[in-house]
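Internal tracking record. Fields below are filled automatically when a chain is submitted to the structure queue. Please do not edit lines marked as system-generated. If the sequence contains nonstandard residues, flag them in the REMARKS field before resubmitting.
Queue: standard
Priority: normal
Entity type: single polypeptide chain
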Amino acid sequence: MLQLSDRLQAVASMVTENNRLADVGTDHAYIPIYLCQTGKIPSAVAMDVKKGPLLRAEQNITLYQLENHIQIRLSDGVQKLDAGEVDSVVIAGMGGTLVQKILEDGKKVLQTVKELVLQPQSDIDAVRRYLQENEYCITGEKIICEDGKYYPMMHVIHGHMESWTDIEWKYGAFLLKERNPVLWDFLKKEAQSLTDVIHSLEQVSGERAKERLSELKHRLKENQEAQKYMKQEKI
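SYSTEM-GENERATED OUTPUT FOLLOWS
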């Protein structure tokens, strides 16, 4: 049985049972392989824009004898996915700007899927805002710490979502409201890191240092507001 990393395990856990899956940017095809092995899903399309990762994916699919369950497909985002072909789409392990581009370019085919599982590596607040502005609804969030890095992820369906506060966009309304312990750990470490850099920059003169200092103080204020939010919010 294939063993997933904590990050990939968390992403896989957000896919609904018995759904047909498309894994965008599949790399080694670990998520489709694991979900098919465990019987959680019946089939998958492992997609990547590069031939190298698809070759690795194909080798792994053959290794685990899942050729009848998982297709590989060279595709830029979901461009080679047919309407109605899958129920779930996973987009994980890439920057938030690219995630938004894939969603925007694939709008037509994505209207036919039931759910998205997204794990952007950056610009997560921008991804959350994009979803709300484009009639997607975030229904749940997770955050994993692996090898010292923090990985937020979200489960998304079609539908209207109320606007969140700036702090909720930045750190995730579900994570804040549930007082997620991994997010709490992240906030404490981020606050300490920001404080250390602020103290160092306060000793530096110049307009550029001044601008950077202002930016970091704003980020620290947001962090402190998020910590206050978590302390006060009732589950």
